[in-house]
Structure formats: C-alpha cells, structure tokens
Amino acid sequence: MSIYRLSKGSDDPYSSLTEADVFAYLGSKTRRPRRRRFRYSNYGMGLLGHVLARAAGQPYATLVEDRLLAPLDMTATRIGSCGEGTVTVQGFRKGRPTRPWTFGALEAAGGLRSTANDLITFARACLDPPDGPLGEALRLARQPFWRGRLPSGNRGLGWMLRGHLQGSRATTWHNGGTYGASSFLAVDPSLSRAVVAGGNVGPGLVPPLDGPAWAVFDSLET
Fold first, then answer.
1. How far is the C-alpha of 15 from the C-alpha of 110, rounded, in Å?
2. Fewest CB atoms within 10 A around its CB: which of 17, 29, 98, 163?
3. How far apart are CA 218 and CA 147, in angstroms?
C-alpha cells in the first residue's frame, strides 16, 4: 500500500506510519532515475533520518540531541514537544482549530518543535558556525549540491539556495508547514543577515510566510 494512502484523510497524516512502512515503501522496483533531477520529498527526508540513526546506532531523536541541540544549547527544541515551560500555539486550518502533526516514523521530515529563541540560536550558528564537526557540517550543508537552471533552483543539503552562486553569497533558506503551522528561515553569512518567522496557519498552494519574510529579509541593512 502507498505511504500516502496510509495517511490520506487524516488531520495528522503521518501519525500512523511505522519504520517498517517507511522502508516497505521503497519496494522491490525502486531504481535510479535516468537523469539527475531534484524534487523535495518529506518521505525522502524521513527515510534519511532512519538511515542516519541506523548508521549512528542510536534513535533519531537522541542523535539530533547529541549532535545539534545540546552543542548549541537549544534546550527548548525536541522531537514531538518543546522543552519545559513552553506553550504550544493553537494552529488553524481554514479558520478552524487543528491539532499539531506528530509525523510518526517520518519525524525527520518535520517532527522537531522549537521556539523563536532557539531558532534564532540556530540561525546565529549558521551565520557564524562554531569550531569542530558541527561547524563543518553547517558549512557543508550550504554548499551547492544541485544547480538548477535559474538562480532560485539551486540546492544544498536540505537547504534551498537563493541567488547566484558566487562564493558564499547565496542565501540559504527553507520553509515548511503543516495544516496548522508554517515556518520560514533564511540566513546569509556574507551579509550577516537572518530572518526567522513562524505562523499558526498552515500552507496552501503558496506558503503564507514566504512573501512577508522575504520582504523583511530584503529590507534589512547590512
């Protein structure tokens, strides 16, 4: 059965997925495409989380905590729930309250919950990576691993790249959303500029935060 059929019609569409479902969806007919191309995939990001966890020999949540959250002191960011003392903002879909997604076995695709302060901490680390393996990983992720036909079509490791690729001048960014939440983050170390935005309305055909967030980003002085 398709992984999308398993989740169809739910207000928390990935909640019932298991790790077995994720790997079963690969199927026996999985093959490389005839030519290289880029398509963003929540399933692909979720699968990557399982692969990394297996390679590290520890659960994905523990891996993220040890390698990213603890070194950056992002104490309010966790898989499934924010840290102690934080309050979850009610999300809305089509004007009606809707519950947060739990992501099930696709937690690597968006299961982290965070706060504005922690996301600002992460943005600062991207602007000025720390010494050591984490800083090296943050720099590596910003490198162009896929070059599109247009400047807006370039991609890093899990990041979108905006602008012409001239040294480190491309802006690193990503957005995301569920039925009741939306998010946006953009950083440009060459300009010492970053914007973090979050909302409690889910994405439609056009993510609701992108336009206003880019307007703020582009209006900032260096």
1. 12
2. 29
3. 23
Chain segment 127-179, per-residue pLDDT in tens = 999 999 999 999 999 998 888 777 677 899 999 998 755 544 689 999 998 98
Examine residue 170 and state whether it is found in any structural domain, yes or no: yes
Domain count, the chain: 2
100 with 122, same domain: the answer is: no
